[in-house]
Amino acid sequence: MKIGFDRRQFLIGSTGALSITLLPKAALAAPVPAANSAPRAAATPPVARVEVVRDTYFGETLSDPYRWMENDKDPDWLPFLKGQNDHTRAVLDKLPTRAFLLTRIQQLSGDTVATSRVQRAGGLIFYTQRPKGADNFKLFVRQGAHGTDRVLVDPTLSSGATGHVSLDWWRASPDGRHVVYGLSKNGSEDSMLHILTVADGGQLTEQIPNTQDANPQWLDDSSGFFYNQLTGAVDTPERFLDSQARFHRLGTDPSTDPVLMKRGLVAAIDYEKIQAPNIVTFRGARHAILLLSDVRPEARAYIAPLTDVIAGHAKWVPIAAFDDEVTDFDLNGEDLYLLVNKGTPRGRLVKTSSTVPNIATAVEVVPQGPFVIEGTARARDGLYLQIMDGGISRLHRLGADGKVTDIALPFEGTIGAVFTVANEDGVLLGLTGWLTPAGIYSVDPAGRVQDTGITPKPAIDVSAYEAKRFFATAKDGTKIPYSLIYRKGLKLDGSAPTWISAYGSYGIAAYTPAFAGRSLAFVDAGGIVGYANVRGGGEYGREWHKAGQLTNKPNTWRDLIAVCEELCAKKYTSPQHLAIGGRSAGGITVGRALTERPDLFAAVTDGVGWSNPLRYMVEQNGYGEEPEWGAINDPAGYRALKSIDSYQAVKDHVAYPAVLLTTGVTDPRVAPFHVAKMAARLQAATSSGKPILLRVDYDAGHGIGSTRSQQDREAADTYAFLLWQLRG
After folding, report:
1. DSSP assigned state of 516
2. What percent of the chain has pLDDT over 90?
3. Does the predicted TM-score (pTM) go above 0.85?
4. DSSP assignment of 272-334
5. Is 727:35 a contact under the CB 8 Å cutoff?
6. Same domain assignment for residues 231 and 129
7. Both 719 and 664 in a single domain?
């Protein structure tokens, strides 16, 4: 059971690797219109109002000319966004490649089926899927492995002309009779919890608001579930602070749901407001685990008898503190399994008693090995271990005999998730590669891996492409893995338009092999698409994460710079044909690479990027990020935050590359002021004459709830912009 929210979702809106569309063979030879002519008669972008605010931190004074943008009620805010977006549309819509690319991308994404989550329950298979030609994901149920499919939740039926509704999360009850799920509007992720009856699709009357990342945990008898509920107001810095763990019994009034854990409720359990309490259940176990988690991979954990927890008088026994660096937990009868990273940064699995847990005396059942243990999933035939090998996924199984076996996967790629049921054999898992479309595969007790067919494979031919993995050498000698995708026969003369993306945060391996999808349209235009596995991620475990965290964060963007310098040295590309891209926390990576080495790049794309971290305290997803970046009220934290703040790093009269920044007005994770301030600052500072464009999506957020058509349009805009800037 993996701790916390899957932050790979941050990149789902990406126009790169995590888009799972595929280019049909018929389009491979299609000519792409010339992109080296600039558009004519583009509107002038509005000049941002300047009102300098000065802040002094530990004796250092910084100026902020666009502080007013942090107030989304300011009368100039929406007009500024609209004027910037109108200018961007005037530029991008006139690019000769844009309409052509959009048509092809729409074909690619429309022809490809995407499946995100699968669960077996009560003899049924539940899964979320975006069917061929659909614009959004739907929840389906299937009777058995090869039965007929039925739609349970179709959020498009609730969408209208003014916006769309997305399915944020869901979980079926163990008996398969009910599903609890969350819906939100316009990519806001502000979920409303609903419950349906599987037999007839009918809705129960109870609904629960403020359930973003509710993480529902059913009881074995399917009579109710634990969940997390937010208490802070939307669009305030308190939004994600002081959430609470509650229990809902089916058929009861949610307003009477007991609060089982919140800050100050239990005197013996004191924790910070940024930590969210989640009560987690395990099939067949008589205990529940309380997790107190924040942005860190590890969590504080307690355990108590499940009956006492439901009754509201649990005496929680400590399992682990944050300093123990436990990142995963599993209960099997009276045995408690812990994935411990302290002293073993690639992870080791230990076993202790659920009644008297003690890490110090726990028995080691899987020692640290050469690869990273990312997480565990319990099935009847063993405990499956999800493994990361520098960006390549592997699967191991710990059997009842204590032996670990390696499950041979059909190709090198990425395991998106492992889905198990504790009282059933085998697993279902999502698996994809750079040139292999994503699918749902089954693994049986004998280790046989088969495609379930839940995700139909598109009829395509990828023989014209190749994907290769390399290692660049950073300034300190560290080897940085990176991957490139391009058409076979590429000439190494330094002329190829090249777009390298990077992330490097939270200890997650973000850009691991995932089907190239929409980005193949850029590749077919003669481009190279690449991904750098920079430090700060989890490709090589906690050491790799910590080497790009807090005061070590400069390693992240300097690793990206090292990769780009190697590409130029090897003649894959050259600075006048080279672009970098990042999303979300990847905005730090590309923003600081841009401001540190503007001479190395012709263009930069920054999607919903964190650009002004020094102002985290005014956004709703702010304080919870302190363990990853630092706290503003601490001298070391301030220095770390300033080092990653690309907005403050912009200097006047510097020849910056062309930049395309994007934001969604309803973004709950990176406030739109980050990219707006960055766009205004770059427009005022650059001396290159190259465009600084701000693209705004008015009914989208961070990209997690974006529709296929929204992602298609962003991809077309991005590729057209890149080809315009990189072809000369």
Report:
1. -
2. 83
3. yes
4. -TTPEEEEE--TT-SEEEEEEE-SSS-EEEEEEEHHHHHHT---PEEEE-GGG-EEEEEEETT
5. yes
6. yes
7. yes
